[in-house]
Amino acid sequence: MTASPERRRELLATAAEVFAAQGYNATTVRKIADEAGMLAGSLYYHFDSKEAILDEILSTFLNELWEGYDAVLDSGLGPRETIEALVTESFREIDRHRPAVAIYQKESRHLAQQERFTYLVESQQKFEKAWLGTLERGVAAQVFRADLDIRLTYRFVRDTVWVAASWYRPDGQHSPEEIARQYLSMVLDGIAVRT
C-alpha cells in the first residue's frame, strides 16, 4: 500500500515541520503520526523508517535547490548578476522548503556522518565551490573589491541568507524576490547613505 502523491506530500510536510521544531533525534514516529492525525503504525505503510522520511525531505529540497542553482550557474551571467540570481533562488527555496532548510542547518553536520546522508557533504562542497568561484570571478573581473576576503565574504552572504529560514513565513509581508532585493542591496551596496 502506498500513499497518493498528495497524501505523501502532506505527510512529508508535517514531518518536516516536526523535525524543524523538535530536532531529528527528539522527534518520534508517534509524534509525526499524531501531528498527521494517524496511528504511529500507519505511518509505516507510507515510509519504512523515520530516517527515510528525513532523507526524502532533505533530498527533495537539495534536488530542487540544485536545479535552480545549476540553471543560474549555466546561464553565463556576470559575477554580480550570478550572486544576485543565487541569492534570489535561495530565498525562493526558503519559501518552498523553509522547514527543510531549518533541518539542514541544524542537522546536516551530524547526519552527514551516516552513510545514507553522505550526499549532504557533497552538496555542501558543491555549494561552496559555486559561491567561492563566483566571488573569485568577480574579484578577477574587478566587479568586486580586490581586498575582499573571499572565504569570509562567502560565509557572511551564506549565513545572512540562510538564517532567514528561522523567521521567514510564506504568508508574510514580503515575497522571496522582494526580500532578496533588499538583502542584495545591503550586501552589494551597503547601508550607508551614498555621497
Account of the 3D structure:
The chain is an all-alpha fold and 195 residues long. Helix content is 70%, strand content 0%. It is built from eight helices and no strands. It is elongated and about 65 Å long. It starts with a helix and ends in a 6-residue tail after the last helix. The model has no long low-confidence stretch (mean pLDDT 93).
What is the topological layout?
Blueprint: H1 5-22, H2 29-36, H3 40-43, H4 50-73, H5 79-111, H6 119-140, H7 150-162, H8 176-189
Helix pairs in contact: 1-2, 1-4, 1-5, 4-5, 5-6, 5-8, 6-7
> How many strand elements?
0
The coarse silhouette is elongated
Q: Give the mean pLDDT.
A: 93
Low-confidence stretches: none
Largest sheet, strands/sense/barrel: none
What portion of the residues fall into strands of 2 or more residues?
A: under 5%
> Structural class of the secondary elements?
mainly alpha
Tell me the quaternary state.
single chain
Helix content estimate? 55-70%
Instruction: Compute the separation of the termini in Å.
Output: 67 Å
Number of helical regions: 8
- SSE order in H/E notation? HHHHHHHH
CA radius of gyration? 19 Å
